[in-house]
Amino acid sequence: MKSSKLMGACLIVLTLIGGVLGLSGCASAKARNTESLLSAAGFHTLTPATSQQQVCYNALPPNKVERLEKNGKPIYAYADKKAGIVYVGNESNYQRFKELGVQQKIADQQLQAAQMNQDAAMNWGYWGPDGMLW
Fold first, then answer.
1. Number of folded domains in the chain?
2. Mean pLDDT of the chain
3. Could you tell me which of 16, 10, 34, 14 has the C-alpha nearest to residue 24?
4. In which region does residue 72 sit, left (phi positive, over 0), alpha (psi from -120 to 50) or beta (all else)?
5. Of 112, 87, 93, 110, which is closest to residue 31 (Cα–Cα)?
6. Residue 46: how many CB atoms within 10 A of its CB?
7. In a domain, 126, yes or no
8. What DSSP designation does 1 have?
9. pLDDT digit string (tens) for 64-112?
10. Residue 125 maps to a domain
């Protein structure tokens, strides 16, 4: 319960944070992809400017979308600990983020299937095409 009260207080502080930062160049590929999807979904990046904001930021788990509530409405936050920023969005942003994630997964699967088909078409093996020895 103490944690949820802290997260609720932090949510209020996070919504007051004013600065915006770019993405960290040394984040992992998965984190960069998640952060790109969050940005595309309309999440805003904020940076803690005060010690209270920093405490709230530190309470968030790294690289994980957390659902919080403010005035009975869901707010979503994702802490990029390497860059020192937090992505904040509403329910609509979160639903768009999930949709983009599904689209990305489908696109990745289609690319993988196309690469496998191309590899299969080009992999004639030792005997070459049509079983002829080269």
1. 1
2. 78
3. 34
4. left
5. 87
6. 22
7. no
8. -
9. 999 998 899 999 999 999 999 999 999 999 999 999 999 999 988 888 8
10. no
